[in-house]
Amino acid sequence: MSERRKGIPEALLEQGVRAASRAAKVVLEDPRGQEVLAAAVGAAQKGKRQLEEVQGRVLRAAGLPTKGDYEDVAKSMARLKRKLRELTRRVEEDRKR
Amino acid sequence: MLFASSEWLEAVVHEVNGHADLGRAIAGLGADLAAVVERDARYFPRGAAGWGRHAGGRIVAWRILEDEDDVLELAPAYVVRAPLAVWKDLLRGRADPVEAALTGRVKVKGDLDGLVRRAGYRYIVDEALRRVATVFPDEVSG
Questions:
Q1: Of all residues in chain B, what percent are helix, strand and coil, respectively (each to 5)?
Q2: Residue B109 contacts A, CB cutoff 8 Å
Q3: Is A35 buried (19+), middle (13-18) or exposed (0-12) by CB count in 10 A?
Q4: What is the pTM of this model?
Q5: Which domains does chain B have, with CATH numbers?
């Protein structure tokens, strides 16, 4: 089956991304460019973090779980999953003896 | 050596730690990093992840995580995540890491500005990977 032909918006987006990444590569080759790009990325991330903090305050005020709450739950689940895996292994080893 | 195996990670870390410029490259970066191979029904049904922590200018602790979700518990300073095919393209030199990050083929979590500032040190990892003969699971017969 032939690959689906890309639409104009997709093709434009792909070309844009390629041009941006080529530009980024050129910028990264120059230490000053690296610093400028790093500062821009840092500022964007700081803005995102601030937005998330505001969102979190609003959600908390409304009695709703925040992104941080979900992350805490995911972390606890991962810990439980690991402990269960370790216990299962121990039980299997005991059974073999 | 099989990609994402413990012996493979050990060999890569050994090569990276042997580089004279490593201390300069990682000074000031977050303490640890996890590189995640996303879940893939055929080769990595539980995903795979390598984790490493640096101190004193070298990587001092590292291990392959049994389950991709272990990354959530460790909560490392940086998480770099991509499917197997993308890791293969990056390690074989067929894809550029900058382009991969910009196009979202590689997802990076953590303070990106620190990584961008150190993009010039990429050769340390490239040289280490060139010295370690890597076989991918889709290349292993049988």
A1: 40, 25, 35
A2: no
A3: middle
A4: 0.81
A5: 6-136 (3.30.1050.10)
| CB nearest to B117's CB, from A25, A34, A79 | A34
Burial state string for A73-92 with b = 16 or more CB within 10 A and e = fewer than 16: eeeeebeebbeeeeeeeeee
> CA B8 to CA B2: how far, in whole Å?
6
Mean pLDDT of chain A: 84
| CA–CA dist B106, B102 (Å, integer) | 8
**Predicted-complex ipTM score:** 0.71
- The alpha-carbon radius of gyration of chain A (Å, integer) is 24
Closest chain B residue to A30 measured between Cα atoms?
A: B120
Mean pLDDT, each 10-residue run in order, chain B (142 residues): 96 97 95 95 90 97 92 95 94 82 85 85 91 92 60
**Cα dihedral angle (B101, B105, B109, B113), rounded to 10 degrees?**
0
- Residue pLDDT, tens place only, A40-59: 888 888 899 899 999 999 99
